[in-house]
Design goal:
By secondary structure, the protein is an alpha/beta fold. The chain folds into 3 domains: 100 residues, no CATH class; 84 residues, no CATH class; 148 residues, NAD(P)-binding Rossmann-like Domain (Rossmann fold, 3-Layer(aba) Sandwich), CATH 3.40.50. Helices cover 31% and strands 24% of the residues. The protein has 10 helices and 16 strands. The radius of gyration is 23 Å and the shape is elongated.
């Protein structure tokens, strides 16, 4: 999303005519989820995607019509034919794409600001009936409501948006309206997941960068002055030169929190893991060999933790990818974090029997 926002800003500065395509519905299998966006210009530039490349060229053609008429369009793509004459998806699903002239209005700027500052926000987009198509209601990071779809719908949309905000996803809802029904896409931008990296090591530099690219809010914690510097961690949201218990002990670690220790130093590892175990942190990982972790467990048992509680620690941390370099270690850790986040084991997709996109 941030790359798209940067391109939209650059195009606006050049006074380009811009259309915005949003994936608003998915039926069956499809490469992208609702809320995926594609920016297009009158000169043919593209940024983002609404599929795996299956329909983007056709979306561009529709965008030219949208820019010419200054009216939005809702386009459905189904399964492409074997000869490739019909544009569609090869994966067997179907999607709806809303294509509209881009409006650089107050509502968009509020949404843009919230996304860039990683604040909670919601964007509601009218889909049906036709007279509601592309109308928007935006709830900004400060809770203010901008624009609106319809006075008869807006209060219900605000309530639904508050309910759905923790999901951080997009969902189409059908609501009662004027004796009939209205269909609206509610896209929520939840506060980012938080990653606390304890130990400003070489692998931590790469884990910080990769996690930030996936939208985590990253805090690096280390009491060692030579290691915990913003110069070493330019991608971190914050670098905290402190003992782990001084930071994690004051944080409200919850199911949006991930804690990883990368030090092998028990002066840092043990208090960090103890704080994490006393919390509702969703993921707790610790770098080190099985022998190292066995000694960690002994220390933590002395502090009163049970074997059941210690089983929450993923150690040795990361998926078994066979890597040994700091970059590869960071990738293995982030891969395990992602698998845990989505309730998966992290095995090869070729061995999965259930739907690739099914939960769990």
């Amino acid at each position: 999303m941030k790359d798209l926002l940067a391109d939209l800003r650059r195009w606006r500065q050049r006074d380009e005519k811009i259309a915005l395509a949003t994936l608003v519905a998915v039926r069956g299998s499809a490469p992208r989820l609702p809320g995926a966006r594609l920016g297009l210009t009158g000169s043919g530039k593209l940024s983002g995607s609404v599929s795996g490349g299956c329909v983007e060229n056709d979306v561009l053609h529709h965008a030219m019509d949208v820019l010419a008429t200054d009216r939005p369009a809702l386009v459905t793509y189904g399964i492409s034919d074997e000869q490739g004459f019909e544009v569609g998806l090869s994966c067997g699903g179907s999607i709806d794409v809303l294509i509209e002239p881009f409006r650089d209005d107050e509502a968009w700027r509020a949404l843009e600001k919230a996304v860039e500052n990683r604040e909670p926000a919601t964007c509601c987009i009218g889909l049906a009936p036709d007279r509601l198509l592309a109308r928007k209601l935006v709830i900004a990071g400060d809770g203010s409501v901008l624009s609106g779809i319809d006075p008869g719908l807006d209060p219900d949309l605000v309530t639904q948006a508050q309910r759905l905000l923790p999901e951080g996803a997009a969902r189409a809802l059908t609501l009662a309206w004027e004796g009939g029904e209205a269909r609206v896409l509610i896209e929520t931008f939840a506060p980012p997941l938080r990653l606390f990296i304890v130990g400003a090591t070489h692998a931590a530099i790469h884990l910080c960068r990769m996690a930030r690219q996936l939208g985590y809010r990253v805090s690096v914690v280390d009491a060692r002055r030579a290691f915990a510097t913003s110069e070493r961690f330019p991608d971190a949201d914050e670098v905290l030169r402190a003992w782990p218990q001084e930071v994690l002990g004051k944080e409200s670690l919850d199911t949006s929190s991930y804690v990883v220790t990368l030090t092998h130093d028990f002066k840092l590892d043990i208090p960090a893991l103890a704080c994490a175990l006393r919390s509702d942190a969703h993921y707790i990982g610790a770098l080190g060999s099985r022998a190292t972790h066995a000694r960690r467990k002994e220390r933590l048992i002395e502090e009163g933790f049970t074997e059941t509680e210690l089983a929450r620690i993923r150690a040795p941390v990361g998926l078994d990818l066979g890597g040994r370099t700091p970059e590869e270690i960071a990738l293995a850790i982030l891969a395990e974090m992602l698998a845990v986040r989505h309730g998966r084991e992290g095995g090869p997709l070729s061995a999965r029997r259930a739907s690739i996109h099914a939960d769990g």
